[in-house]
Amino acid sequence: MEDNKDKIENENKECNCDSKECNCESKDCKCESGECGCESKDCNCKKEQDAEPEKDELTLANEKIKDWEDKYKRLLAEFDNFRKRSEKESAMMIDIGASMILTKILPIVDNFERAINSIPEDLKNNSFVDGVDKIYKQMLKTFEELGVKPIEAVGKPFDANLHNAVMTDENAEGEVDTVTEELQKGWTYKDQVLRHAMVKVKK
């Protein structure tokens, strides 16, 4: 009789064991065993192997800082690329504008050159003629400072990238496809052709 009484008391007792291998059959088992084997419907035990370790605040803060650093570096790289691209485009626009202006000035330089070449020998010492010649030379010096250079033509092999052949010359000495005469001076600006040289070519 006493054995049955002890058995009933044990069954009604609330299980709070910390055993790693709990096999109790208590209905209110609350053990936190790593390997709970109870079959109770109300078992509140938590298995250690299923629990994910929580990250501490410092780790989360470091991860957030790293994320912001990555975003900042990407943004900085994008801005640097934008700045370089803008500078390149601005330089190109400046060169295009300069080319347009220089192209309009070239006929003026041609007229100065024609005027100087047509001056008779007896007037070359005239003060007015000397003034015109100095203006012409000043323009050529300014061109050189800006990167504007005349295209070499006479005696050079014909180059379609630099020369515009408008006449042929079969009687001139020299090799075939060689420029024998320059009819109009050609110019380049920063290695870009402003105007092709108009030439006569040996055939």
Low-confidence stretches: 8-14, 46-52
Mean pLDDT: 80
Strand content: 5-15%
The gyration radius over C-alpha positions equals: 48 Å
Supply the key terms.
single chain, 203 residues, alpha+beta, Nucleotide Exchange Factor Grpe, Chain A, domain 2, three-stranded antiparallel β-sheet, three-stranded mixed β-sheet, 6 strands, 14% strand
Description:
It is built from 3 helices and 6 strands. The protein has a 3-stranded antiparallel β-sheet with strand order 1-4-5. The chain is elongated. The N and C termini lie far apart (137 Å). By secondary structure, it is α+β, with helices and mostly antiparallel strands. The model is unreliable at 8-14 and 46-52 (pLDDT under 50). Helix content is 45%, strand content 14%. The chain has a domain at 149-203: Head domain of nucleotide exchange factor GrpE (Nucleotide Exchange Factor Grpe, Chain A, domain 2, Roll).
Itemize the secondary structure elements and their pairings.
Layout: H1 2-12, H2 57-117, H3 127-146, E1 148-150, E2 163-169, E3 179-184, E4 187-189, E5 192-195, E6 197-202
Parallel strand pairs: 2-6
Antiparallel strand pairs: 1-4, 3-6, 4-5
Question: What's the short story on this structure?
Answer:
45% of the residues lie in helices and 14% in strands. It is of the alpha+beta class. The longest helix has 61 residues.
